[in-house]
């Protein structure tokens, strides 16, 4: 059936899946195996992630080729219903990686990968298991070994200890939105273990992509010092939205634990009425002074940390340029920057014809203004003409969609 007759599942994760015409239909995220009483689990298919983070099931019989670079499907239709694990089934990576098991000589080890192997009849089963010895020495990693499935104890024991290191190595290349989606598919205990193992910046990015009740649940499982550190890594508007979901006493405690320079913009955003420009804006757009050059502006918007919406324009203000800034002067869109000589000053290429928003402007009016002028972001200024932030198109979408839109998307994908 395939070019390879043995492939380790963690190496499949992320590989593109192509249809017979050579068009990519998704990427591999996991393999599904069904438990058997008389042998190792049989592999029944792969989980592929489609656009919009929908995970679907690809039956193993539909797969005509597996190699080091791709997975290829045979002809036929693809069932686009969202994958749901059935009884007596394993998601190989999610359920087995990092599981604590016992080797044939009685020593403890953890699972780092599992191979799926094709027999002479073309059936695929879980076969060899790569494990790492558990060692008590912090400065030394345990040795790697391979065993056959039947030689190990504890592989399918639901009470076995399960860490996170190997699963994290598979998930680390995912975009935050995709990782957030994958987290929601894990059992609660596993989900919180993985979330706790992420570094502060990565966890902050993932929290911004989760439904509010999941954000609150994960934050509540962290100790308060760690929770405050994660909030500091979040965008100020997302942190403000999350804190608004917490009880007032908990909210105040976490704000006090944050560094003052990190909590100040969050506190400022929380002062605005809900569903106004001030409440949904980001307080950290790209801001430069009029004597900065086009080259300076292009260098700023190339920063990897900026979202596409924030990188689409530079707001120009008198010093100081931390919000609230000096007097707001105008905006330069990145297309204009590309057309101007690098040495020209921003003060000479400003666009001043778009009236900025007031922080109190209702969301409906913000939406109409941005749609009228086809904007991806627009300035928000206070009564003294100081820039206090910018509303981006993704801010607007987040607040126009129903609060439970992520759960609705998952419900539609699952066919419920």
UniProtKB/TrEMBL annotation:
- One Gene Ontology term, aspect cellular component: membrane
Identify the Pfam families for this entry.
CBS (PF00571), MgtE_N (PF03448), SH3_actinomycetes (PF26205)
Cross-referenced Gene3D superfamilies: CBS-domain, MgtE N-terminal domain-like
Keywords in UniProt for this one? CBS domain
Question: What PROSITE patterns does the record point to?
Answer: CBS
List the GO molecular function terms: magnesium ion transmembrane transporter activity
Limits of the CBS domain: 281-349, 350-407
Q: What is this protein called?
A: Magnesium transporter
Species annotation: Catellatospora methionotrophica
């Amino acid at each position: 059936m395939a070019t390879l007759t043995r492939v380790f599942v963690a190496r499949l994760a992320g590989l593109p899946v192509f249809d017979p015409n050579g068009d990519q239909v998704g990427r591999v995220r996991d393999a599904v195996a069904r438990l058997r009483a008389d042998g190792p689990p049989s592999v029944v298919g792969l989980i592929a992630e489609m656009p919009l983070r929908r995970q679907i099931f690809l039956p193993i019989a539909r797969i005509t080729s597996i190699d080091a670079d791709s997975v290829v499907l045979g002809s036929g239709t693809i069932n686009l219903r969202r994958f749901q694990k059935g009884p007596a089934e394993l998601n190989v990576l999610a359920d087995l990686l990092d599981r604590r098991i016992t080797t044939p000589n009685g020593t403890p080890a953890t699972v780092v990968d599992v191979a799926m192997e094709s027999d002479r009849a073309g059936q695929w089963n879980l076969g060899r298991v790569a494990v790492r010895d558990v060692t008590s020495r912090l400065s030394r990693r345990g040795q790697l070994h391979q065993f056959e499935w039947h030689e190990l104890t504890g592989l399918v024991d639901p009470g076995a200890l399960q860490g996170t290191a190997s699963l994290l190595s598979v998930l680390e290349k995912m975009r935050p939105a995709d990782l957030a989606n994958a987290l929601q598919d894990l059992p609660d205990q596993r989900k919180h273990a993985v979330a706790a193992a992420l570094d502060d910046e990565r966890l902050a990015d993932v929290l911004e992509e989760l439904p509010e009740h999941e954000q609150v649940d994960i934050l509540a499982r962290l100790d308060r010092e760690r929770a405050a550190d994660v909030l500091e890594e979040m965008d100020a508007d997302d942190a403000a939205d999350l804190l608004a979901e917490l009880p007032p006493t908990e909210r105040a405690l976490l704000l006090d634990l944050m560094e003052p320079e990190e909590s100040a913009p969050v506190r400022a955003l929380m002062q605005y009425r809900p569903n106004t420009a001030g409440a949904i804006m980001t307080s950290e757009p790209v801001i430069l002074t009029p004597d900065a050059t086009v080259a300076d502006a292009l260098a700023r918007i190339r920063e990897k940390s900026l979202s596409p919406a924030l990188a689409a324009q530079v707001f120009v203000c008198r010093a100081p340029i931390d919000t609230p800034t000096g007097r707001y002067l105008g905006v330069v869109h990145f297309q204009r920057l590309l057309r101007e000589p690098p040495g020209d000053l921003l003060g000479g290429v400003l666009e001043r014809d778009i009236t900025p928003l007031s922080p109190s402007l209702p969301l409906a009016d913000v939406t109409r203004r941005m749609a009228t002028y086809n904007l991806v972001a627009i300035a928000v200024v206070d009564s003294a003409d100081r820039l206090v932030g910018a509303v981006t198109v993704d801010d607007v979408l987040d607040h126009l969609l129903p609060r439970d839109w992520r759960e609705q998307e998952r419900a539609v994908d699952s066919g419920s």
